[in-house]
Input
Amino acid sequence: MIKVGIIGSTGYAGQELVRILLQHKEAEILMFGSQSYKDKKYYEAYRNMFKLVDNVCSDGSVEELAKEVDVIFTATPNGYCSSIINEDILSRTKVIDLSADFRIKDIDNYKEWYGIEHRSFSYVNEAVYGLPEINRELIKTARLIANPGCYPTCSILTLAPLLKENIIDKDSVIIDAKSGTSGAGRGAKVDNLYCEVNESMKAYGVGTHRHIPEIEQELAKAAGIPMYINFTPHLVPMNRGILVTAYASLNKAMTEEEVRDIYEAYYKNENFVRILPKGIFPETRWVEGSNYLDINIKIDPRTNKVIMIGAIDNLVKGAAGQAVQNMNIMFGLEENAGLNLIPLFP
Output
């Protein structure tokens, strides 16, 4: 039985970790960390957990927690994990960080985009970028996992096969992405109030979104050369889900079947990537509540472009589900343990 501690258990991603791990036969949550609900029952934060979780939230020492558990999930704001991580903790337990602290390998880049001084840069290169479909072998032996962001997860996996095969022009990539409001977290913000979000859609972080360097970094690894992309996220009035529509010019004329064959080959053995039948395009409603990524493509022969579309649940494959997927790999379990979550509909 894997003993688990969750720091930040009362945020949206933290609550999703609890929901998934409660159904995981090989894991037991020993600590529900929360500053805002300290000394309160966990179900006081999430009433859906009434009669399911009777534990009291704690904000106890991470050093002490590391002595008691096999893995710590940090579902915390950017800057927290880098401020507490040290060799004593990593010598005792594994850490899966859901923030951006260890995703970006260039420290100056991290400071520029996040406005935070990194406080444990010596662990940045050790941390494994936790995208199982790409870094599975590295994840197996890792002590510290940088769990990918939600937009990057969907964007990278939707584009990577064609970049690896040099099928698309690397300078032509445009990513148009849309997310539900849970992606902004549970904190009270005027821009996320019902009246501000309902019956509207808006672009935000235009040209400045913090996930840009993360996406560029990982797509550059796939392409083998530096990547610079246009990425524009949009806020959609729904609770969950991310839809990525990416565009790129083809390097040579190809049929839709030839491009589809590349995706099928790359993801044929993946538990959670579904290549949809021709003409059926991803929708967020068909992945909601699950760890699936749905992908499909369309060739536009008039413009010599390929349109790549991916959809995930931002809180599951884009956060907590992927974190549990990483945990399973790190501890030698079946990768889908606790993650056979059938998408919810309606």
Remarks:
- The mean pLDDT is 97.
- Residues 151-314 form a domain with the Dihydrodipicolinate Reductase; domain 2 fold (CATH 3.30.360.10).
